[in-house]
Amino acid sequence: MIPVPARVRFAPSPTGRFHIGGARTALYDFLLARKTGGQFILRIEDTDRKRLVEGAEKEIMDSLRWLGLNWDEGPDIGGPFGPYRQSERANVYQEHAEELIERGSAYYCFCTPQRLSEVRQLQQKRKQPPRYDGLCRRIPKAEAGARREAGEASVVRFKMPPDGATTAHDLLRGPITVENASLDDFILLKSDGLPVYHLAAMVDDHLMRISHVLRSSEWLPTFPLHVLIYRAFGWEEPAWVHLSVFLSPTGKGKMSKRDMVDPKEGVKSIYTLDLRDLGYLPEAVVNWMALMGWSYDDRTELFSLAELLEGFSLDRLNPSAAAVNFGKLDHFNGLYMRSLRSEDLSSRLRPFFEAAGLQADPMLVARITPLIQERIRTLDEAPEIAGFFFRPSVSPTPQELVGERLNPEQSWQAAARALAVLTEVQALRREELEPKLRRAAEEMGLTAGQFFGILRVAVTGQRVSPPLIESMEILGKDVVLHRVRQAIALLQSLPT
What we know:
This protein is mainly alpha-helical and 496 residues long. Helix content is 45%, strand content 9%.
């Protein structure tokens, strides 16, 4: 049974860039919270101070906001169970580590790094699995306390049961049983007083009243330890949900940050804000991520965030690894692009024109949006296909202006004939202009493709463009005439 309302947390570490694996976990957390009328909490797990990356926390928050995954409690907005940065909760973890020692479930370990290295080397020689040999767990509590009082450096380790087995239940995978003898006495509190994940996350999940812990299946090897920590305190466990991992687009091996961009394998960036900058819509990214590990049925693929909220449930999650398919993302993005209202798409396109160094007048962007909406798959394609609207001139090479199966002289004569037609018409409107241009092409013995191809490159500077006559109408007669005259001069510069 799912408690209503559910309290879930997304707890990333700001140790690198934010990728789609974390984003999908946050999405499922968000959906479960909203579905049950519960709370979605953002907690920053930043106790690994050596690995912190400047700006990573901001990237996490910017990514979640871009995706529309707004949190109810977090480091920036506070809440009743703060602070929400683990680095600000060190005293909480120290108190709980000491409580575990008092309960007989943890102990101080004084082994130096040198001794631990020697133990590992000996175990390797004996072909034994590397693990702590338990030397300090035999130190009497009073002696350990005295050594601590004397200032001897120490860590706190969890006292793993020496025999028996630990069984825990995962909502996706069922009961999971591990022999305790195979588990190590993990460190809970480091010598600097800061906790490792195993202690901090469990303490925070309990104190913040988390009902469901959704996280990657990469945590399964230490799952028994986390369950034992809960049981050592006598706490009620949350519902555990270990999500599927992502495979590379080839389906061979886990998705790796090292494989971030590989066009041959169909790999684009796995970082959320890179997808934004590549021109993907957040609606498409959310839809795409949701279906990599969850499905409503075997037919429905297109979901708005509201529709995901309506249909989401944990029992439809799939524990099997999911291959990242960027072709599917392109497909979704195209569908969402074409479904947007023109005004909405126009406002989303403007930043991409500006990023390309173009003065994106809002009125002009609004006029060209209907011409390109069916022709672009991502927002960042707009400057490439429609940048000529914003430039004072275009710069095709003379060779690009030569028509298909034509020589330079035939091409400039065609351009000159087009110029004459353009000059004589009152306005560049399709109903008047297109029949006259087609008739001119026919009279010259040219196909429409040859004739309009030369004119297209002359006016837009490119072989592929939005509809030509509508483009010329937006550019205006003076600009069009100027560009065609320049094209004629370029063609006449070529040897006949």
